[in-house]
Design goal:
The complex is a heterodimer of chains A (87) and B (411).
Chain A (H helix, E strand, L loop, with lengths): L2 H16 L20 H15 L15 H18 L1
Chain B lengths: L5 E10 L2 E2 L1 H9 L6 E2 L13 E2 L12 H4 L4 H17 L3 H5 L3 E6 L5 H14 L9 H5 L3 H10 L5 E2 L7 H14 L5 E8 L3 H8 L31 E9 H7 L5 E10 L9 H15 L8 E3 L6 H15 L4 E3 L2 H4 L6 H15 L1 E2 L16 E2 L4 E2 L4 E8 L3 E8 L5
Helix pairs in contact in B: 3-7, 8-14, 11-12
The chains are: A mainly alpha (87), B alpha/beta (411).
């Protein structure tokens, strides 16, 4: 899966779960202020991403650093690379 | 009791006929049934009843996702009905958010549909890792009351009575007492439930669900009828906005009716079987609470679900207390049994009958059962300016409840 496919799958999954508009899904969009998500949504976002990419990320401390949609893209891309490198 | 007089200034309904009080009333006045066949229930092993009345034609997405995400269907029904009730009563935002408005809304259970979904997933590997953050808010006992309060910004007290088929009636009664005692000026009161086959199964296994009309669903349930064979489960929500008389008059609100009495009693003789003497006692207590004589009652909205025993017990109690001449009808033939919603939804219809000057008959009552024949059955639309009514509801667990209403007469 190339990086753009990862980004597309993230955006599609989050748009469906949180009823977001595609045009709002810009990398610099902040999760809380721009996309209107809150702490409960972040819990569910982790579950959505774990389901979409078949990995476990709930205990990763770096999740707490995420502020924007672009942060999620980078987090998932890095996580996938980390998994690929250990295989 | 009447420490403070309590009136109704708004109503909302989500029923098998759709959203709104008008469509509810117009459908019932036309003699329509909301009951349909559910052939897919054949897939549930041992379930013989394959009829139900389900809500259609509503748009949950009018509720913002932030609030809707923690709602199952029953909370969606409740929120839509509450919005309509507040809108009808023209209650301004300052009362809604300022603490004067409370909530008394219950359901039989939290969402069985969501509980089933959760455990289906959980039992695959006993993992909680896929559990969404909002599951609990859909299965908790006070799901409807809490979700309504969140969605509408209500800051007053929350009550969430749960007594199966008496839920809606008790919720209104407790809301009535809350305002009468001066604890709130407004209360959104009612009940809501969503359909799940477990509800039908609960009654089917005790031989109290209709099983002989699966191919002819509009002919069941048949309250008080010779050929009745049990109740039909349905879903929806009824909401009444209760308000202190003083507040309603100060706001110059339109008063739809006055609640003048309420009683609720336990009948420890059986957890499942209704008892005529206990029902009579409950109605008598409600009359006493209302300080009205039995001769003043000019319409009885019966619980009458079309079970063999329940209809007989209620008709015996009504006859003993009111004789043969007071008009009696049940709305279960149109609506099925909306469970926790039934008390409030049928109160909404009863108040609408008072204000429209008509009595809706018992649908499917073609041949009155001899055991129920002594009371004044309504079998066709009757024009009648009913003034003082009593509304009954009885529940598994043998929780009885009766409410007395009076039409409000403007000077």
């Amino acid at each position: 899966m190339i990086d753009q496919e990862v980004i597309d799958l993230i955006n599609t999954s989050l748009a469906e779960e949180f009823e977001l508009n595609e045009e709002d899904l810009k990398p610099d969009a902040t999760l809380f202020d721009d996309l209107g998500l809150d702490s409960l949504d972040i819990v569910d976002m982790v579950i959505v991403l774990e389901k979409a990419f078949h990995f476990k990320i709930r205990e990763k401390k770096s999740i707490r650093e995420i502020r924007t949609l672009g942060d999620i893209h980078n987090f998932v891309i890095n996580k996938k690379r980390e998994i690929e490198n250990t295989q | 009791m009447a420490l403070r007089r309590v009136v109704i200034t708004g109503m909302g309904a989500v029923s098998p006929f759709g959203k709104g009080v008008d469509i509810l009333m117009e459908s019932m006045i036309k003699g329509q049934s909301g009951v349909t066949g559910l052939p897919e229930l054949a897939e549930v092993g041992g379930l013989r009843s394959r009829v139900a009345a389900l809500v259609n034609g509503i748009d949950p997405k009018v509720i913002p996702r932030k609030y809707r995400r923690s709602m199952s269907k029953m909370s969606i029904y409740a929120t839509l009905a509450c919005q309509d009730a507040l809108q009808q009563a023209c209650v301004s935002e300052k009362y809604i958010t300022g603490g004067q408005l409370g909530v008394s809304i219950g359901s039989t259970l939290g969402s069985t549909n969501i509980t089933q979904s959760f455990f289906e997933d959980f039992f695959t590997d006993h993992s909680l890792e896929r559990m969404k953050s909002t599951v609990f808010f859909k299965i908790m006992g006070h799901s409807c009351a809490a979700n309504v309060s969140q969605a509408l910004g209500i800051t007053g007290r929350i009550l969430a009575p749960s007594s199966a088929c008496s839920t809606g009636s008790q919720a209104v009664g407790y809301g009535f007492e809350t305002i009468a005692f001066g604890k709130q000026d407004f209360m959104l009161c009612g009940g809501a439930d969503e359909y799940h086959p477990l509800t039908t199964a609960t009654f089917d296994i005790i031989n109290a669900a209709s099983i002989n009309y699966n191919d002819d669903p509009n002919r069941t349930p048949r309250p008080f009828d010779r050929d009745r064979d049990g109740l039909v489960c349905s879903e929806g929500c009824g909401i009444l906005l209760l308000e202190s008389m003083k507040s309603a008059q100060k706001r110059d609100a339109t008063i739809l009716a006055e609640i003048i009495g309420f009683a609720t009693t336990s009948d420890p003789s059986s957890i499942a079987n209704p008892n005529a003497a206990a029902i009579e006692t409950c109605m008598m207590k409600a009359l006493k609470d209302a300080n009205v004589r039995r001769e003043e009652i000019d319409y009885i909205n019966a619980h009458a679900t079309a079970t063999i025993q329940g209809d007989i017990a209620e008709s015996q109690a009504i006859f003993k207390l009111f004789g043969s001449h007071v008009p009696v009808s049940s709305l279960k033939g149109h609506l099925g049994h909306t469970m926790a919603a039934s008390g409030a939804l049928e109160l909404v219809a009863t108040i609408s009958m008072m204000n429209r000057g008509c009595i809706i008959p018992t649908l499917n009552l073609d041949n009155v059962d001899q055991s129920c024949e002594k009371i004044g059955h309504v079998q066709g639309i009757e024009k009648s300016h009913i003034k003082t009514v009593i509304k009954n509801n009885f529940a598994l667990g043998c929780v009885n409840s009766s409410i007395v209403l009076r039409r409000y007469e403007y000077d």
